[in-house]
Amino acid sequence: MAIDVIKITGEQRDRIVNMQEDHYVDLKAIEIAPGKLTRSLSAFANADGGELFIGIDEDRKSGYRAWRGFAAVEDANSHLQVFDSIFPLTTYAQLSFLEAVDESGLVLHVQLDKTPDIKKSSDGTIYVRRGASNLPKTTSEEIRQLEYTKGISSFEDELLKIEASEITNSLPMIEFMLEVIPTAEPEMWAKKNA
Known about the structure:
Blueprint (H helix, E strand, L loop, with lengths): L3 E5 L1 H8 L7 E4 L5 H13 L3 E5 L1 E3 L6 E3 L9 H10 L6 E8 L5 E7 L13 E5 L2 E5 L2 H11 L13 H5 L2 H9 L6 H7 L2
Parallel strand pairs: 1-6, 2-3
Antiparallel strand pairs: 3-7, 4-5, 6-7, 8-9
Helix pairs in contact: 2-3
C-alpha cells in the first residue's frame, strides 16, 4: 500500500511544530531508533490511540522545535518496517508523509487507533501511554489490568478457588433452588447449568 505525500501550509506546519505532547500526541526527531519508536507505537495502541509525528526536532534546554523531516520517502524505510511488524497491512495505523510548502523534508505522520489486542514493543515490553509518557507494564498484575481495560478478560471469566459447597450450600442458592421447577438438588442443578 502506497503512503501518500500530503502538502500542508506553513500555518499547518506551525501548528504541528507547536503541538503539546500529551496523551494523544508525540513528536520525534528522524534519528529515533526504530526499536525505540516501537515503544510509542505499543503505548498508543494499548491506550486510546494517538498521533505521532516523526521529523520534528526539539532543543531540550530551550524547548525550541523545528521541522526537519526525511529528505526522501526511502530515508524512512527502517521506520516504516517497524509498522509492518506491529501493525500488519497497516491495520489500526494510518501513515502519510507531510510536506510543508516552505520547508524541506517529509515528516512521517502516524495516526494510531486503540487496538483490541495488546501490542508489544520490539523488545517484547508492553507500554501504555499516560500523559506524555510511555509507561512499561511488566508485572503480571499490570498486564492483567490492561487485559481488563481492553476487554480481553473480564472478572466473569475468572474461576474462583473455593469449594463447590460454598456456593451450593449458600443461603442465596438454597433460596433460589426453592423457586426452581422442577425441584432439583443445588449441586446437580449448578453442574447442569454451568
